Amino acid sequence: MSVSRRVELVVASFDDPIVTGLLAKARPRAEASAAGQTVVPRPRSGADPYGRHVPADAGVVFVVARRADAPDGPVGCAGLRRIADDTAEVERLYVRPPYRGQGISRLLLAGVEDLARRRGFAVVRLAAADLRVAGLYVSRGYVRIAPFGRRPGPSVCFEKSLLVTGGRPG
């Protein structure tokens, strides 16, 4: 019998038990970082830039990744928050450790961008908690921008246009 590695993306609300469960799994890493312990790599989780847990709220909708061969539930998620009429923020991109390095972050990012496009956003922004993931963002068409919104000065932020240019998404 072969085990399927197909990943299914589903949209879930901020208070869906799948989302709250995933963010709870991300929380210990954020808390260890806040305590001064080195945690590598540090995922985008339900934590602010200072490592304090920030619960998801009604302004965030999530794309959740599930795999049929994952016996212990969903494998990752990415949140989408409206920050202006035409701009949304991608936040809390998280993939559980056993499933990292398998392209799931890339699928989640594509899925959350598609959700933003379907909801009428022209631009998505995000803040990188770890510069080692900057290559993923750049490969998906993101460009570096100045910190935005509630981000502290040293944050590394990115932006991507979702407008179709030359027959392909930008």
UniProtKB/TrEMBL annotation:
InterPro entries: Acyl_CoA_acyltransferase (IPR016181), Bact_Acetyltransf (IPR050832), GNAT_dom (IPR000182)
PROSITE patterns named in the record: GNAT (PS51186)
Pfam families according to UniProt: Acetyltransf_1
Keywords: Acyltransferase, Transferase
N-acetyltransferase domain span: 7-163
Domain of life: Bacteria
Keyword Transferase: yes
SUPFAM superfamilies: Acyl-CoA N-acyltransferases (Nat)
Protein name (database record): N-acetyltransferase domain-containing protein
